[in-house]
Amino acid sequence: MARAIVAILKQYEGGREAMDVCREYSISKATLYNWRKKYSGMESTHLKELKAVQDENRRLKKMYAELSLDSKLAKEIIEKKL
């Protein structure tokens, strides 16, 4: 998918009309402009690295939330026993 985004952006930045690019790849203009805002100037390797970091960040946030909840529950149990 990263290569496709980069290829689509390069076509658009190369002078093709937004509507033509969107029609060819069945994406909305909003999607094209969001991709341009986020990924303009990136190569596919950078985009893959960014996606990997975002996935890792999402996983770590979930892990933190679960540990935080476990800690809160443990404190409540300890307080009830005292």
Automatic annotation (TrEMBL):
It comes from the Bacteria. It holds the Pfam family HTH_Tnp_1. Gene3D superfamilies: Homeodomain-like (1.10.10.60). InterPro entries: Homeodomain-like_sf (IPR009057), Transposase_8 (IPR002514), Transposase_8_domain (IPR052546). This is Transposase. It comes from Larkinella bovis. The lineage of its organism: Bacteria, Pseudomonadati, Bacteroidota, Cytophagia, Cytophagales.
